[in-house]
């Protein structure tokens, strides 16, 4: 069965430090992969997506993610975080063919230390 | 474009009451979705509509019904609300699954007492 695991429930990093949020998926075929961000009280906004091609994907707000098929991972990175990056981050995986097969991870809450 | 809109933003119900959450999108998207978000559980799919005129159950459909009124609108109904349905509900839409991402509404925070 498809699944998405975000092993870190809560991460705190200092402003200006680098960030990596982990995402592992279980899926039988090549998936579509997404990272979304949710600020408090808001809906979800797409940061980046991977469908095919270059395995290093650039997104908005200075984020990037790398698809590693051998590790079934799609980790999100940012070289230098800003206080405004404090939010909840969700990884998601989707099927090519089925509209119902969009699975979200349980999320990682990011806090920024001044 | 307003994107995906949801009404109401907040709602408090008593156990056993009914209500309908409304969702509309103006992006000519084909598929629409209802999710619920609970702490530590991410988003769980309640129902979806792959195209106008079709609806299907997702992961947690019990206690809910949906109507795809037309291509723009997709409503979620709670016939007899229960405290376990206290959650934040998100509507989302997508033009086509192969190559697009979902667009989300701002959410409805529902409390059932």
Provide an overview of this structure.
The complex is a heterodimer of chains A (114) and B (113). Chain A is 0% helix and 52% strand. With 114 residues, chain A is mostly beta strands. In chain A, strands 2, 5, 6, 10, 11 and 12 form a 6-stranded mixed beta sheet that branches. A 4-stranded antiparallel beta sheet of chain A has the order 3-9-8-7, with no helix packed on it. Chain A starts with a strand and ends with a strand. The model of chain A has no long low-confidence stretch (mean pLDDT 91). By secondary structure, chain B is mainly beta. In chain B, the strands form 2 sheets. In chain B, strands 2, 4, 5, 6, 9, 10 and 11 form a 7-stranded mixed beta sheet that branches. In chain B, a hairpin with an 8-residue loop joins β9 and β10. Chain B starts with a strand and ends with a strand. The A-B interface holds A 4, 9, 32, 34, 36, 41-46, 49, 51, 90, 94-100, 102, 104-107 and B 4, 31, 33, 35, 40-45, 48, 50, 56, 58, 90, 92, 94, 97-99, 101-107.
Oligomeric state of the chains?
heterodimer
Rg of chain B from C-alpha positions? 13 Å
Number of strands of chain B: 11
> How would the global form of chain A be characterised?
globular
Largest sheet of chain A: 6 strands, mixed
The end-to-end span of chain B amounts to: 36 Å
Please indicate the percent range of residues of chain B in DSSP E strands (runs of 2 or more).
over 45%
Care to give the gist of this entry?
Chain A has about 110 residues and is mostly beta strands. In chain A, about 0% of the residues lie in helices and about 50% in strands.
Give the tags.
heterodimer, A: 0% helix, B: 113 residues, mainly beta, seven-stranded mixed sheet, four-stranded antiparallel sheet, 11 strands
Write the layout of secondary structure elements.
The complex is a heterodimer of chains A (114) and B (113).
Chain A: E1 3-5, E2 10-14, E3 19-21, E4 24-26, E5 32-38, E6 44-50, E7 56-58, E8 64-68, E9 73-78, E10 87-94, E11 102-104, E12 108-113
Chain B: E1 4-7, E2 10-13, E3 19-25, E4 31-37, E5 43-49, E6 56-57, E7 64-68, E8 74-78, E9 87-94, E10 103-104, E11 108-112
Parallel strand pairs in B: 2-11
Antiparallel strand pairs in B: 1-3, 3-8, 4-5, 4-9, 5-6, 7-8, 9-10, 9-11
């Amino acid at each position: 069965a498809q699944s998405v695991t975000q092993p870190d429930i809560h991460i705190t990093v200092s402003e200006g430090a680098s960030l990596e949020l982990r995402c592992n998926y279980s899926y039988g075929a090549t998936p579509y992969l997404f990272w979304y961000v949710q600020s408090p009280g808001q809906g979800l906004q797409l940061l980046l997506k991977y469908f095919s091609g270059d395995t290093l994907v650039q997104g908005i707000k200075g984020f990037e993610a790398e698809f590693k098929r051998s590790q079934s991972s799609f980790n999100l990175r940012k070289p230098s975080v800003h206080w405004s990056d404090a939010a909840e981050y969700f990884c998601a995986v989707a099927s090519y063919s089925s509209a119902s097969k969009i699975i979200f991870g349980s999320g990682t809450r990011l806090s920024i230390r001044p | 474009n307003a994107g995906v809109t949801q009404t109401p933003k907040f709602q408090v119900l008593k156990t056993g009451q009914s209500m309908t959450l409304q969702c509309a999108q103006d992006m000519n998207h084909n598929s629409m979705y209802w999710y619920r978000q609970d702490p530590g559980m991410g988003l769980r799919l309640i129902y979806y509509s792959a195209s106008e005129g079709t609806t299907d159950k997702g992961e947690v459909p019990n206690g809910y019904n949906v109507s795809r009124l037309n291509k723009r609108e997709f409503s979620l109904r709670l016939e007899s609300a229960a405290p376990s349905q206290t959650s934040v509900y998100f509507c989302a839409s997508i033009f086509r699954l192969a190559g697009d991402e979902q667009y989300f509404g701002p959410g409805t925070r529902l409390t059932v007492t």
